[in-house]
Structure formats: C-alpha cells, structure tokens
Amino acid sequence: MFTAEFRDQFDALLRWRRDVRHFKSDPVAPELLDHLLAQAMLAPSVGFSQPWRWVKVETQARRQTILENFSAANLEASTHYEGEQAEHYRRLKLAGLVEAPVHLAVFADLDPVAGSGLGRRTMPETALWSVVMAIHTLWLAARLEGIGLGWVSILDPQAAQRCLEVPDEWSFVAYLCLGWPVEISEQPLLEREHWQERLPLDELVLKR
Ligand SMILES: Cc1cc2nc3c(=O)[nH]c(=O)nc-3n(C[C@H](O)[C@H](O)[C@H](O)COP(=O)(O)O)c2cc1C
Q1: Ligand 1 pocket test: which of 19, 69, 70, 149 has the largest number of ligand atoms within 8 Å of its C-beta?
Q2: Mutational pocket test of ligand 1: of 78, 149, 151, 173, the residue with most ligand atoms within 8 Å of the beta carbon
C-alpha cells in the first residue's frame, strides 16, 4: 500500500516537522484549518472516546489575554535559571502568539460520553493522552500542507480556561499557534539555539 517513495517522504515529514514560533501574517483559509482538524481527529483515542475539544480563539481581546498570560508565565519561568542560563532563556523565542494568524486552544473532555468509559477505568489520564495523539497528528498534517504549528505550554492553564469560557469538566491541554512559517529547518530551534541537543537512541532504550 505504501511505496518506498512514500516511506522516504514520510521520513522527511517526521524529520522536517518543527515547532514553529516565527510566522508570516498571511491568513490560513478556514477550510484548510477544518481539513487539518478532520485529519487530526483520525488519531487513536481510548475507547474511541474522541475526547479532543478544539477552540478557535478568534477575538482580539481573548488573544491579548492569552499573550499576557504567556508573558507573565515566561517571566516567572526565567527566574528559575541563573546567570548565563537565565540570559540564554530570556533570548529564546518561546511563542509566536503575536504573529500567528490561527490560535487554537485544545482541551480534553475528561469524562466523555463517547466510548462509554472503555479503557479509562484504571488509567483515566488516557483521555488526556488521546488528545495529545490528535495534536501530534495535527502537527504532521499541518506540516504536510506547509503550515507551521507551535505549542505554547508556558501558560497558567486555569487562567487560560477561564478566559476561554469552556465547560468546567474540560481540561486544558495545549494552546497552539498555526500559520505559514517564516523559515523551515531540519533542526529544532532549541537545538539551533544551543539549548538542548537531540539525544541518541541508545541512551533512551533499555533492555530488561
Ligand atoms: C507538550 C509540549 C509543550 C511545548 N511547549 C512549548 C512552549 O511553551 N514554547 C515553545 O517554544 N515550545 C514548546 N514546545 C515545543 C518544543 O520546544 C519542541 O517540540 C522541541 O524543542 C523540539 O523541537 P521540534 O518540535 O521543532 O522538533 C512544546 C512541545 C511539547 C510537545
């Protein structure tokens, strides 16, 4: 079903997927975003519960509140480093909230009706993990269309949840920026900025 050429391209897709924080201001067509979301929802989910809930954050006021939330959390995070590392941290660009044309908050319904609880009895957190599976699928689908995605987790999740006025039983998972990237790279930005190198496989795989 999958050709050698497709396998090479799939490998390239994985290698060239990036967390993007530098966006052009060009809009993303709403139909394209919906197409990406439909692909994301092909992801696996515990009990087929499909617990992902997507919030398109469109109002400027809410976007501004999220930006202020990020700025405060990022400033606070910087105080946990010292000396040169603190300087280094402050120089990193850790969100593209100002430039990104699409803001998408992602929640998990922690007790979804779909799936009738199958698979969540001993590990209820699988609902959250299912949502992360969908986010990664979205990440790849977006990259395939040339759209960059940046995950912003440097946020106070409760404040973000209040700002977005979603049901209390939803749990905040991610705030995503999407748009056309300024550049593409085979290397993570944090690697290019000498914050962290990619770890070798043999350090991370155990045999028992
Ligand atoms: C759960 C999660 C949270 C993340 N939060 C942030 C964030 O707040 N800001 C940021 O710049 N990148 C964030 N990232 C992106 C990572 O920094 C990035 O995935 C990593 O550096 C590897 O780069 P790559 O995605 O380009 O391969 C997050 C990624 C994940 C999976």
Answers
A1: 19
A2: 151
Which domains are delineated in the chain? 18-204 (3.40.109.10)
Asked if residue 52 lies in contact with residue 108, where contact means CB atoms within 8 angstroms, the answer is yes
CA of 151 to the centre of ligand 1 (A): 6
State whether residue 112 is helix, strand or coil: coil
List, for residues 46-78, the tens digit of each pLDDT value: 999 999 999 999 999 999 999 999 999 999 999
Q: What six digits make up the tokens of 99?
A: 């430039």
- Mean pLDDT for 185-190 is 98
